[in-house]
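Per your request, structure below.
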């Protein structure tokens, strides 16, 4: 898992920075402040990258979940699978309007699908092709 390696690298950068601050005395307070600001910006950027990677990993795993394994009523599962929607990713590649028009999906089934999408913390727009 790349994010664990990134976390270790992040830790090493912070540790090295703290050691350098203790070993070297800057020539002025301005130099010290400038050095700390650069280090803070680097750490902040690395945190954002790490958080994004972890979120992407979680989302990509969620997208592989099969419709058959989700907590949906048999009627909803059968309607989705019957329309060749096998995974959560397949579902999210369809527009809301196309899913709403699937045969044998009523309002109750559609609301059930919306609940599952919220449960996995994904959105309809996530996999829609850009125009």
């Amino acid at each position: 898992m790349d994010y664990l390696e990134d976390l270790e690298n992040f830790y090493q950068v912070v540790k090295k920075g703290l050691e350098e601050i203790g070993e070297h005395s800057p020539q002025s307070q301005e130099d010290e402040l400038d050095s700390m600001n650069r280090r803070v910006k680097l750490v902040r950027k690395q945190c954002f990258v790490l958080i994004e990677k972890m979120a992407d990993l979680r989302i990509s795993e969620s997208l592989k979940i099969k419709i058959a394994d989700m907590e949906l009523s048999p009627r909803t599962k059968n309607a989705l699978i019957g329309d060749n929607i096998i995974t959560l990713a397949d579902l999210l590649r369809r527009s809301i309007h196309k899913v709403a028009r699937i045969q044998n999906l009523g309002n109750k089934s559609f609301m059930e699908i919306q609940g599952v999408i919220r449960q996995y913390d994904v959105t309809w727009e996530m996999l829609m092709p850009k125009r």
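The chain has two domains: 2-63, 67-127.

Regards,
D.
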